[in-house]
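TEACHING EXERCISE
Course module: macromolecular assemblies
Task: Read the component lines below, then compare them to the predicted structure of the full complex.
Student: A.B.
Group: 4
Components provided:
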Amino acid sequence: MGEGSYISTGEPALKSVDLERFAAGEPDAVRQLYQLYGRAVFTVAYSSLRDRGLAEEAVQLTFLHAWRAADRFDVDRDPKPWLYAIARRAAVDVYRRERRHSGGVPLESDADIAILPKSFETTWEAWEVRTALDQMSRSQREVIEATHFLGLSQEEAAEKLGVAVGTIKSRSHRAHRKLAALLSHLQEATA
Amino acid sequence: MNCDDARSAFLSGDAGQRELDHLGSCSDCRMEWEALETSRQLLDNPALWEEPSPDLEGRVVALIGGTPEQTTPTRSRARMWVLGGGGVAAALVGVFLWIGLSSAGPDWEVDLPGTAEAPDASGVVRGWNQPSGTRVALDIEGLPPAPDGSLYEFWFSSGELHISAGTFAAPESVELSVGVSRADFSRLWITLEPIDEDESPSGLNVMDTG
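Instructor-supplied answer key:
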């Protein structure tokens, strides 16, 4: 999916007053923006860089750059695409620096983004999936994580989470239906 | 087999022949399956399940929170301030003449040698760790006043992350504040920057802890 094909999921945008306070560097507003999007920013960075320390550095750069640019942001717009673009760019900057310091071929122009590794190609999907997961309940996320990431069977997931197998089945179904609805715009774009 | 059992088995990867047979015979399940399968594939990225360190939020807040006009002034803001103030260095945001920051000793101290651009310069940075960041005092010798149209800028850096602690024109004893922790930044350095809107350390590197 191209980065320009953003389709709003209907998630409420930050109130304008929040971004204005963020631009002013008010700690509560900074913390609020991080709590809303910090994990998604980290997912973009980690998905690209595959290194926890570098990813966290990219997260800090993202919020620093966002803060510096906040006075130029239209507070009536959804901040998600704006923040995603900053996050991806921060990850690219960290990648370029690491490549330069590791003795690789220097990357000196924006055109060199075209030769970024494949891990950078799916950052938009990663961002969207992570923000979708963050909108789900803890119990729904837990069952998805147990069955997908940990690779547990339904019986094993039931034991790990301390619930009946039937509960796992129903939660799993509800969770995936909600996830499919939240990510329907990605499915339409890739169809 | 009911639809819920079949769909949950597919989603968890536990589907067998019975579930496949059900999918073949149930149009409702087939219609829903494609959407569910796509979302399931999107979950295969292991990065989705990595969580940032618990203290990252605090580091981000410390980095840009607080009172940025006083603790982490961008260069353009700081320089606009000095121009508006008629070039009086003492009026710079976050920069004060050294009149005795504290009667208590510093929490840390580090030598700040001159680079090849300023071989006669030498100095010491003393720092006081504070809940909102760090206050530093610079004792510098052998560095001339910044030429017209430029200012010195003091940086906290970690890799490519550069945080400005402020600008100054007269490099004798200077006190600065910055909203970050010294522990997160291994490098302290001073550049001579032209007065412009560029917020990155792009000028001459004149003093550097390395």
